[in-house]
């Protein structure tokens, strides 16, 4: 069986489909270019209509491509602009379906991982990290992913990583403290340990000291110690989000509780966080294990019973075993014992 998504990928795009996608891209691009806080309501409404009129896959891919091109640049993007773009994704995630946020999140995380490994000079990593931080701020993703990213950055602990840790903590530190204070405390302890061991290697000691001070300020819930920290814009947009999301809940129930590892290996192990996502990779469980379990201990069963089992269409080892046990047991206790075995 080949799922429709894979089937489509195998068929080359015809001219009509290409033209349709081009038209869709123009429409989405036009809406994203006009995006700002005052007209967010009308634009999110138009986007929802486009989602109703076109296939989800085409819309998700088009929207993700356009947002990535708009937000991931070599220069640092204005925080306000990033917030508004992510807020649009968040509204669609809550109103249209969780696959919208999931598709965008996966693309952002994979790109971030790729750029972290390469030594890119620009600000693309910061922009991608800001997108992930705001996806968390607007309840698209759970704090689990943010902690995973922070742990990964702390484990590497070079100048670039310290910069990114500071950037992330400044954006979502206090929300993390509210969500999981214990995990944040463990992370701070780990960072202090790393800072002590890496003291000789790093040239810029003031940066490390500044990071540790920021972490202590977070632990003590002291907002004044963090320069340039301003929760006002995020709070304002969260209020706007509450008015635009149709469902009555807080939005926490649609948060994607997915780890960094799961997102990066989605192509190999499937996307379990999206209900009904098609997947045609290698089986997740090793085949050898299941085959050994299949060979159950039946004991010596007469060929007559085996023939009967075949007639009753007991076509797997397990079915045959259960049938033989039921037919050859002396009483219910005997059958129970054998079935347990």
From TrEMBL:
<feature type="coiled-coil region">
    <location>
        <begin position="181"/>
        <end position="208"/>
    </location>
</feature>
<dbReference type="GO" id="GO:0003723">
    <property type="term" value="F:RNA binding"/>
</dbReference>
<dbReference type="GO" id="GO:0005730">
    <property type="term" value="C:nucleolus"/>
</dbReference>
<comment type="similarity">
    <text>Belongs to the CWC22 family.</text>
</comment>
<dbReference type="Pfam" id="PF02854">
    <property type="entry name" value="MIF4G"/>
</dbReference>
<comment type="subunit">
    <text>May interact with EIF4A1, EIF4A2 and EIF4A3. Interacts with PPP1CA and PPP1CC.</text>
</comment>
<feature type="domain" description="MIF4G">
    <location>
        <begin position="25"/>
        <end position="222"/>
    </location>
</feature>
<dbReference type="InterPro" id="IPR003890">
    <property type="entry name" value="MIF4G-like_typ-3"/>
</dbReference>
<keyword id="KW-0539">Nucleus</keyword>
<dbReference type="InterPro" id="IPR016024">
    <property type="entry name" value="ARM-type_fold"/>
</dbReference>
<keyword id="KW-0175">Coiled coil</keyword>
<dbReference type="InterPro" id="IPR050781">
    <property type="entry name" value="CWC22_splicing_factor"/>
</dbReference>
<protein>
    <recommendedName>
        <fullName>Nucleolar MIF4G domain-containing protein 1</fullName>
    </recommendedName>
</protein>
<comment type="function">
    <text>Plays a role in targeting PPP1CA to the nucleolus.</text>
</comment>
<dbReference type="GO" id="GO:0042274">
    <property type="term" value="P:ribosomal small subunit biogenesis"/>
</dbReference>
């Amino acid at each position: 069986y080949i799922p429709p998504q894979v089937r489509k990928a195998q068929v080359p795009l015809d001219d009509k489909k290409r033209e349709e996608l081009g038209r869709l891209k123009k429409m989405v691009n036009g809406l994203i270019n006009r995006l700002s806080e005052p007209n967010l309501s009308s634009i999110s409404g138009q986007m929802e209509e486009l989602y109703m009129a076109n296939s989800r896959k085409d819309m998700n891919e088009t929207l993700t491509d356009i947002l990535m091109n708009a937000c991931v640049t070599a220069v640092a993007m204005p925080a306000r602009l990033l917030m508004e773009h992510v807020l649009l994704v968040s509204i669609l995630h809550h109103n249209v379906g969780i696959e919208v946020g999931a598709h965008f999140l996966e693309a952002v995380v994979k790109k971030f991982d790729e750029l972290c490994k390469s030594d890119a000079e620009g600000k693309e990593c910061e922009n991608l990290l800001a997108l992930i931080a705001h996806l968390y701020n607007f309840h698209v993703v759970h704090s689990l992913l943010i902690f995973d990213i922070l742990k990964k950055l702390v484990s590497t602990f070079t100048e670039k990583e310290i910069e990114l840790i500071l950037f992330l903590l400044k954006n979502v530190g206090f929300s993390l403290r509210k969500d999981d204070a214990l995990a944040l405390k463990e992370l701070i302890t780990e960072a202090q340990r790393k800072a002590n061991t890496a003291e000789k290697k790093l040239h810029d000691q003031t940066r490390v000291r500044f990071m540790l001070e920021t972490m202590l300020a977070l632990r003590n819930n002291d907002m004044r110690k963090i320069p340039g920290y301003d929760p006002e814009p995020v709070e304002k947009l969260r209020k706007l989000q509450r008015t635009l999301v149709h469902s009555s809940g807080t939005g926490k129930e649609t948060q994607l509780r997915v780890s960094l590892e799961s997102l990066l290996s989605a192509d190999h192990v499937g996307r379990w966080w999206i209900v009904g996502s098609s997947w045609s990779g290698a089986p997740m469980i090793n085949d050898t294990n299941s085959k050994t379990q299949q060979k159950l201990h039946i004991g010596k069963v007469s060929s007559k019973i085996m023939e009967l089992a075949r007639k009753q269409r007991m076509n797997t080892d397990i079915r045959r075993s259960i049938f033989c046990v039921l037919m050859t047991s002396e009483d219910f206790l005997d059958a129970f014992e054998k079935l347990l075995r």
